[in-house]
Structures are given as C-alpha cells and as structure tokens.
Amino acid sequence: MKEITTADVLAAGPGVQIIDVREADETAAGMIAGAVHLPSGSVLERAGELDKSRRVIAVCHGGGRSGHVAAALTGLGFDADTLVGGMSNWEAEGLPMVTPA
C-alpha cells in the first residue's frame, strides 16, 4: 500500500478502481467521477465486487479510513493504495467532483 497524491489519481487511467469509503452523508457533497461508494465498514464483506486484477485507490475524507481499507485490501491480495489527504485535498485543489446518484 502506498499513499498517493491527487496527481497520481488523475494520471492513473481508466483501469483503476476508485472506491470512496466515506459514509453516504459525506459523499453527498461530491465524489471523484467514476468512484464507487463502498463505506469503510462494508468493504471487506463486499471485496468480491472488486477486480483483483485492477489497481484499487481508496478515498475518504482525510486519508485515515482509506489507509486502513487499502491496507486490509492489500492483505487480501489487492494492489491497493490510499489518497493522501483524501477528499479534503481533492476539494482544496479545486478538482472536479460529481454528485452521487
């Protein structure tokens, strides 16, 4: 597991799986386009929904929860990283967000 930057996420390309591990009330403010909402408390039981052959980037508000999730997924055999500073940094940098459906 690595801590990656917003620039790393933007450069990751279409093959990456971005998972937003925040709670629903937090994602209502916006998510990274293409991210899938998997709250941190349900990631391990829903890990089967993720493709082990594709890199995973976990995102939360500040990087703490996503770091724990990325470490747990790495332990399960995933190539998983965490966005350092989370959505706080993403938003502070003025990067685009979408409203979840």
From TrEMBL:
Transmembrane segments: none annotated. Pfam families: Rhodanese. Residues 12-99 form the Rhodanese domain. Gene3D superfamilies: Rhodanese-like domain (3.40.250.10). PANTHER family: FAD-DEPENDENT OXIDOREDUCTASE, SULFURTRANSFERASE YTWF-RELATED. This is Rhodanese-like domain-containing protein.
